[in-house]
Design brief:
Lipocalin; 189 residues; 2 helices; alpha+beta
Length: 189
């Protein structure tokens, strides 16, 4: 009796594992990403936000390659366009064997996070980033402005990677975007 119960449990676990593999979103593929190409300033155009990012405006990340091979991450934002500028610092380490696409970050030297670069525009104008579970996502751009057609196309791309696009909010990069359809509301407006 116990043996058949163990076999049934094993069969159920294997079935669940196979079902999970079959429904897992595709993994980013392609040639290794040259790290230097993603260094610099990236404006947060849209996101499925982490709870600490909700209500931010004028947010952007600055990535800088350090001499030790790690990446300095400098996140700058406001909670409203009249609110003071705030920053958050992190250090990222590229996870070996991921083509420079998966980064392990540490905020405050102790809070871990992992992000995956799904895709970078051929001309480097935008970048799609998510977490491995696809529960958080970001649309980054080199410019604070992005036309709606490009944004909608990037939403479709994120959907193809398994991100729930209905959870994405646009991030106001200028005061005229506050209150516009699809834009997140600032915390301090």
């Amino acid at each position: 009796m116990a043996n058949s119960r163990n076999l049934s449990l094993l069969a159920l676990l294997m079935l669940c594992t196979l079902a999970g593999c079959a429904s897992a979103p595709p993994v980013a593929t392609g040639p290794d990403l040259p790290l230097q190409s993603v260094m610099g300033t990236w404006y947060v155009i849209g996101h499925v936000p982490y709870f600490t990012e909700r209500g931010h405006v004028w947010s952007h990340d600055d990535y800088a390659l350090r001499p030790d091979g790690r990446i300095s991450v400098h996140y700058t934002y406001r909670t409203g366009f009249h609110a003071p500028v705030k920053t958050l610092e992190a250090v990222a380490t590229v996870i070996p064997g991921t083509g420079n696409r998966d980064w392990r970050l540490r905020f405050y030297r102790v809070v871990p996070a992992t992000q995956r670069i799904l895709e970078v525009a051929p001309d480097g104008a935008w970048m799609l980033v998510t977490t491995p579970k696809r529960d958080l996502a970001w649309i980054f751009a080199r410019s604070p402005a992005m036309d709606d057609s490009t944004y909608q196309g990037l939403l479709r791309k994120l959907s193809g990677y398994g991100v729930n696009r209905d959870r994405l909010w646009r991030v106001p990069q200028s005061p005229d975007q506050v209150g516009a359809l699809g834009f997140e509301r600032p915390n301090d407006e």
